[in-house]
Amino acid sequence: MSLHQIMYISSATGPVSATQCAAIAKDAEDRNRVDGVTGLLLFNSKRFLQVLEGPRDAVERIYQRVARDGRHNAIVKLRDMPIEAREFGEWGMAYDDPFQPASALKDKVAKLLDHAGPSTRAHFIGSAEMHRG
Ligand SMILES: Cc1cc2nc3c(=O)[nH]c(=O)nc-3n(C[C@H](O)[C@H](O)[C@H](O)COP(=O)(O)O)c2cc1C
């Protein structure tokens, strides 16, 4: 079975609460599991950064569906490539909690990226830093 990875960044079209974001992630996890697709969804109160990994057909189908979702726009694909192994063993979720210091999100993301390669880490760490300006 050939494994594939798609990574994209997008902008939220409206306000997304921590609760809504957790619901999007939980829903995605449940749906993706059926197709053997895993990955990571990061939200930093303005932007989403998501990685989808799994069988190529399923990853592309899910990406097409997600890309049409009106809750985000300005989607930019950062990666679309075959992979030898999953960079993220299990689904993870991180978001900006206003009651935590800004560094908390970065720490959380770093932890979720334990097994990811250097280029993936750079994308996510950058994303965790790019807000609260
Ligand atoms: C940022 C973001 C990420 C999403 N990720 C997934 C995902 O990984 N898998 C998934 O099935 N749906 C995901 N969704 C939800 C889909 O866009 C869509 O609402 C859902 O799959 C239901 O599609 P349907 O109404 O055509 O059945 C995501 C939505 C957003 C806004």
UniProtKB/TrEMBL annotation:
Residues 3-94 form the BLUF domain. InterPro entries: Acylphosphatase-like_dom_sf, BLUF_domain. GO terms for molecular function: blue light photoreceptor activity; FAD binding. Gene3D superfamilies: 3.30.70.100. It comes from the Bacteria. Transmembrane segments: none annotated. Pfam families: BLUF. This is BLUF domain-containing protein. It comes from Sphingobium lactosutens DS20. The lineage of its organism: Bacteria, Pseudomonadati, Pseudomonadota, Alphaproteobacteria, Sphingomonadales.
